[in-house]
Amino acid sequence: MMQRSWRRSMPLAITIARRNLSMELPAEQPMDAFEREHMQQRIHITPFQRLLLGAGSSVAALLDPRRHDMIACLGETTGEEALLNILDSMQASEEGRRILAEKPRINTTTIDFKRLEALPADSFGATYAKFLKDNQVTPDSRMPVRFLEDPLLAYLMTRYRECHDLLHTVLGMPTNMLSEVAVKWVEALNTGLPMCYGGAIFGAARLRPKHRRAYLKRYLPWAIENGKHVKPLMPVYWEQRWEQNVHDLRAELGIKLLQ
């Protein structure tokens, strides 16, 4: 426990160096657009405040799962270790390294949704556009990261949030409560983020009896199998896969649809 706390207190550049990651971080370099935005939105908190925020947000999110602000706060105050592991997996992938270098964003100003809708129906891009329309959701609804000090980890958390609907799409899951819980299990096992485990466990506890039976019999075994066996999903450069056949993409990643 002391060793883990000590590592958390180190600057991220030192932590990365100890892990022998291949990316070289210059001592000083101009901030990119995301870093500038994050520095304006970031809220500095002490370790004790981080502990209080983590505990308080977990209780608030448990009492009311609709409190997306509390869920976001929980993810930021408890997810640093998992984000470092995600960084490892992205550095190990050529595709992941390009994401870290370019820091793409997913929202209605960066994605041409008219173009996606015009793609073949079985393409990943068209499937994603249809998912958004069918479920009446927008990629603009993700909250900014405020409680992570390091801009690189803040970007990884931002990337996770903005890719959530893409994961729904590739898993073939709508946005109802039963599907959300199943997707959270896949995310938890694939990323290791504590908030995903919390959402999966406590979300399942709120299911109605009829849905709980379906969850235990079909959704949970399916989610665990996918979560354990699919390739790491954070290093996937989804925006460069729009034209790929969605069935081929699922096969590449090792994803099996719920039967």
TrEMBL record:
Manganese is among the record's keywords: no
EC number: 4.1.1.130
Signal peptide bounds: none
GO cellular component terms attached to this protein's record: extrinsic component of mitochondrial inner membrane
Pathway: Cofactor biosynthesis; ubiquinone biosynthesis
Cofactor: Zn(2+)
Spans through the membrane: none
Binding site for Zn(2+): 164-165, 168, 180
Known role: Lyase that catalyzes the C1-decarboxylation of 4-hydroxy-3-methoxy-5-(all-trans-polyprenyl)benzoic acid into 2-methoxy-6-(all-trans-polyprenyl)phenol during ubiquinone biosynthesis.
Family: Belongs to the COQ4 family.
Subunit comment: Component of a multi-subunit COQ enzyme complex.
HAMAP family, per database record: Coq4
Protein name in the entry: Ubiquinone biosynthesis protein COQ4 homolog, mitochondrial
